[in-house]
Design goal:
Elements (H helix, E strand, L loop, with lengths): L2 H6 L10 E2 L18 H8 L10 H11 L4 E4 L6 H19 L8 E4 L3 H14 L9 E3 L6 H9 L4 E4 L1 H9 L10 E4 L2 H6 L3 H9 L6 E6 L6 H8 L4 E4 L10 E7 L2 H13 L6 E6 L2 H12 L6 E3 L5 H12 L5 E5 L64 E6 L6 H8 L9 E7 L19 H14 L4 E3 L11 H10 L2 H17 L5 H6 L32 H6 L12 H15 L23
Parallel strand pairs: 1-8, 2-7, 2-8, 3-5, 3-6, 4-5, 6-7, 9-14, 9-15, 10-12, 10-13, 11-12, 13-14
Helix pairs in contact: 3-4, 4-5, 7-9, 9-10, 12-17, 14-15
Pfam families: DEAD (PF00270), Helicase_C (PF00271)
Keywords: ATP-binding, Helicase, Hydrolase, Nucleotide-binding, Nucleus, Ribosome biogenesis, RNA-binding
Enzyme class: hydrolase
């Protein structure tokens, strides 16, 4: 079916599908008890965050339809409560079946998600809501890559709900660890993202293994990017729920753009974080893994803590980073968005050039000054083992994010929308700042340029048109660059310290550290809680040259307006440690007696030569 027909809500026979418009608002006094949910489920809801005091719009619309057994295709934005909208009806159906007849154990519900991180998040929500259900609702997350024997053991007990990515379901079916013969409910969350991750073949394989009469719920932020294909695979004539709240948080996001040179990105980021101009928690999106480490090592020079989130890290580490960030332990996440939501926008873009040094995956380094690129034949780039089912911009519930910084612009306007959707949630406001490189500044700074910035102006125009069409404005980030001139010497010194070798060593060191933070050490940390500090993901990598003097900002560097923004009173004062005090007093004494300070006369080796030799 064409997208045009989908928007008109017509089925294959040109008959209008049953639809629920966005005009159906949930009553002000509605509560979860009005849905007739089991008392055990209501008990689990009561133990949630106060935001669960009443159902959201998508919950009040989808839950009654799902309880009636209808197939549903729902469009609702990130952070609107989609997870509970399909989890609660699943739980109700499972409890109802077990109450009516003490049936044998079986896996009756499958939830498909695009990434491992989202699978873990959904599993955690189900486990929390099912706290009062005991063993009547059991859930297993098989999204992680495991040995077949381990996965077979976890599925042998036939959990009621299985959460996984489509590829992991297919893998379990092929190994006979999982059977879909008794499945009665299928949920596909973030359907458009799953199709953008090119998992359509896996979905097709799953649909052919499902029995007849399965209730299907498709949840998506848009009704594009192959959603109609998924619908045709799993359900016919679904009830279409379109809620115009997919972008409702955007009116609470203050959007800014800073047009600057490539190296000035680092300067502005340094000033924003060091002077505490960025308040609260912040997600910084960068183009690739090496940019993560370059920026982290750069910020470390100024004692600015940050942690990294990318597809190269082990799954457990990524989940732990998100969990600790939500708890407020970390304030800055440097994240790659390697699986941009790619639509038709990128088809017209010219291909970006690759940097010729061949180190890493892409664009690290530059030709030696004075030499032509043609003098260096292109080498085969090294392939790094990445997780194809990793995703940050969509699905994952980052809590209380105050700032989103697009250090590198995404390649599409759709990805931009999903990135800034990480902030301004749960009724709160947020700020989105994007850096864009003008054409005349492209490739001016050899050590930091990346090919994707060549098209920043084109991408920014598309983003601006999209946001303007929705009634939102992207304002210029008014920053007086002349006031940053006093910081340039320090910033350049720190940036020079982050070499390609330092980045490579930092990546290796980080991977080694994360591999040590495994489940096998869980018992050790329970017995030695003081060692838990080593689990921090924002610890210094110390791969770059350490310059302790950069930690402090002298008072004379600060513009008058910035001094008020600082919260700590000791910034600008560099205290002496014991050794420095001893050396200082010694130098004063040397000057008093006419001796050269800090100079110790070498002993004459001939005069100090002993008469006794070795025996």
């Amino acid at each position: 079916m064409s997208k045009r027909n989908l928007k008109r809500k017509l089925n294959e026979s040109n008959v209008p599908e049953e639809a629920v418009s966005s005009g159906s608002k949930n009553p002000a006094n509605q509560s979860f008890s009005d849905f007739g949910l089991d008392a055990r489920i209501l008990k689990g809801i009561q133990g949630q965050h106060p935001a669960w005091s009443k159902p959201t719009q998508v919950q009040s619309t989808v839950i009654p339809l799902a309880l009636e057994g209808k197939n549903i295709l729902a469009r609702s934005g990130t952070g609107t409560g989609k997870t509970a909208a399909y989890v609660l009806p699943l739980m109700q159906a499972i409890l109802k079946r077990k109450t009516a007849s003490r049936a044998t154990k079986c896996t009756s519900a499958v939830i498909l998600v695009p990434s491992f991180e989202l699978a873990s998040q959904v599993t955690k929500v189900i486990s929390t809501l099912a706290a009062g259900c005991g063993a009547d609702i059991r859930v297993e997350n098989i999204g992680r890559k495991e040995v077949d024997k381990v996965q077979r053991v976890r599925l042998a007990d036939l959990p009621d709900i299985v959460v996984a990515t489509p590829s992991r379901i297919i893998s379990s079916l092929e190994s006979s660890a999982l059977s879909l013969s008794d499945v009665s409910h299928v949920v596909i969350d973030e359907t458009d993202t799953i199709m953008a991750y090119e998992q359509g073949e896996y979905l097709k394989g799953i649909s052919t293994n499902l029995p007849q009469g399965v209730q299907t719920i498709l949840m998506s932020a848009t009704l594009e990017t192959g959603v109609d294909q998924v619908r045709d695979m799993f359900c016919q004539n679904p009830t279409v729920v379109e809620l115009d709240n997919s972008e409702e948080s955007a009116d609470r996001v203050f959007q800014y753009v800073a047009k600057c040179a490539e190296d000035e990105k680092f300067l502005i980021a340094y000033v924003l974080f060091k002077l505490n101009l960025v308040k609260g928690k912040c997600i910084v999106f960068v183009a690739d893994i090496d940019r993560c480490y370059r920026l982290k090592l750069f910020l470390e020079q100024f004692q600015i803590k940050s942690c990294i989130l990318n597809s190269e890290l082990p799954v457990n580490s990524r989940l732990h980073v998100v969990d600790e960030f939500n708890k407020g332990i970390y304030n800055i996440i440097l994240a790659t968005d390697e699986h941009d939501i790619v639509g038709d926008e990128t088809k017209k873009q010219p291909k970006t050039e690759e940097r010729p040094d061949g180190e890493g995956e892409t664009h690290i380094g530059e030709p030696i000054s004075g030499e032509k690129e043609s003098d260096h034949p292109k080498k085969k780039t090294k392939t790094t083992k990445r997780d194809k089912e990793y995703g940050v911009a969509r699905g994952i519930d980052f809590k209380d994010v105050g700032w989103v910084i697009n250090f590198d612009l995404p390649i599409t306007s759709k990805s931009y929308t999903h990135r800034i959707g990480r902030t301004a949630r749960a009724g709160k406001a947020g700020t989105a700042l994007s850096f864009a490189i003008p054409k005349d500044q492209y490739r001016k700074h050899k050590s930091t340029w990346i090919p994707s910035t060549e098209h920043d102006e084109e991408v920014l125009d598309k983003i601006t048109r999209q946001q303007t069409k929705k009634g939102f404005e992207i304002k210029p980030f008014n920053l007086n660059m002349s006031q940053l001139d006093p910081f340039r010497y320090r910033f350049q010194s720190a940036l020079r310290a982050v070499t390609r070798t330092a980045i490579r060593e930092a990546r290796t060191r980080e991977l080694k550290q994360e591999l040590l933070k495994s489940e096998k050490l869980k018992r050790h940390f329970e017995e030695n809680p003081e060692d838990m500090q080593h689990l921090r993901h924002d610890s210094d990598l110390k791969a770059a040259r350490v310059q302790p003097h950069l930690k402090h900002v002298p008072d004379y560097l600060l513009p008058p307006a910035a001094r008020k923004a600082l919260t700590s009173g000791d910034i600008g004062f560099v205290g002496f440690n014991k050794d420095e005090k001893r050396l200082r007093s010694s130098n004063i004494g040397n000057k008093r007696f006419g001796r050269r300070s800090g100079f110790k006369k070498k002993a004459d080796p001939l005069k100090s030569f002993g008469g006794k030799g070795r025996r």
